[in-house]
Each structure stands twice: as C-alpha cells, then as structure tokens.
Design goal:
binds guanosine-5'-diphosphate; 5 helices; alpha/beta; globular; about 210 residues; Rossmann fold
Length: about 210
Amino acid sequence: MSIFQNAAFYISAHHLSDLPPANGTEIAFAGRSNAGKSSALNTLANHNRLAFVSKQPGRTQLINFFSFNPDKGNDKFLVDLPGYGYAKVPEAMRAHWQMVLSRYLTERNSLAGLVLVMDSRHPLTPLDRQMLDWFCTTGKPVHTLLTKSDKLSRNEANQTLMRVRKELSENWKNCTAQLFSSLKKQGVEEAEKIIGQWLFANENQIPNTVT
Ligand code: GDP
C-alpha cells in the first residue's frame, strides 16, 4: 500500500496569507504546465482525481494542500503548486505567481523538500532552472521526476537520466533524479521511498510503506 493512499484534499491557497500554519511537514510538487505533475500526484496517491488532471494547462492557479491523515490531525501534506510556463497567462498573473512561488519556496519553514516534475523529453527548461535556483538556496533536498519516460526508448531514457543527474550535480546541491511514468506506473516505489524519508525524517518508522 502507498504511504500516500489516504491523502485527501485539505485546502487551497491563492495568496501566501491563505496558507495553513507552518507547523507540520510538507512536500511541494512543482513543474511546468503539462509536465505530468497532476498525473504523478494521482499515481503516487493511487487516486484517479486527487489532483485534477487539467485539460487547460496553466489554469490551476492555486496552491492545493493534500493531507495524509485528516483524522489524526493534519501535520503532513503534499502541496501541489501551480504549473508554470504556460504562454497564455497574462503578465500580471505571471508576476503574482512568480512572487508567490519564490516566497513559498524560500520562506516556508514547514517545507521539507521539493519534487520537481519535468517531462523527460524536455528536462531542465529555463523556468525549471529558476525553481532550482530559488529553492536550492534553502539547502533543502530536491527530487526530480523525469515523467512520461514511456515515451522514450529505454536507451534514451537512461541517457536522459544520466545527463540530468550530471547537470544537477554540477549546478545545484542536494538534488536527485529518477525516471517516472504515470502511464506505466514506473518509478512509483523509488519516488515514495525518497518522499517518505523526507516526510518521516524525525520519526522511527515510515508507516504503510509499499508492500
Ligand atoms: P500537469 O499540467 O503537469 O499537471 O500535467 P498532467 O498530469 O495534466 O499531464 C499532461 C498530459 O500529459 C496529459 O495529457 C496526461 O495524460 C499526459 N501524461 C501525464 N503523465 C504521463 C505519462 O507518464 N505518460 C504519458 N504517455 N503521458 C502522460
């Protein structure tokens, strides 16, 4: 069973002032619009519509919090950040979200790590690099999911993974990468292991790990 199995929608925030108190542990998911972020969240949570797989990229301009154990107090969250890089977003909205995202990533004390979702066919775009520049100043870990790996041959996928790992290690600290496919359910255990370690770092046991 997935550690994310019981994740349920908790709250949406449009402004930093709407965020819940920063006294739990949260893991944020960021990525370019259409990179496969909603699909990855749904795959990890084994849930078809936990994060609504948007048919209109760039329209989900909210920070969505998903709670793991709503019944036992809300202290652990997955946080779905708005997708970035959608060309048709008006400039004022883009500027608002850049400010919100950069401040959330750099100032949020309860944020334990960032999952950066990138299409394995177009990894490390300039905006992905911008996210890494912002977040890596905090010293907290980043795990990149190279999504839609089913669209690459095994050889292409492995070469992409090696190239991304090399570039990450040359430019930013504390970054890891893996291949991921929501379609083929590939890379789920690897991602859960890393995210679970971040979430439960100060606890003796990771509950309900994959069996
Ligand atoms: P988001 O905008 O980053 O949340 O991206 P979505 O999760 O909405 O996915 C964007 C598009 O990519 C949708 O048409 C998905 O069906 C497709 N997609 C997402 N993940 C995968 C995957 O692992 N493999 C394939 N082949 N397509 C995927």
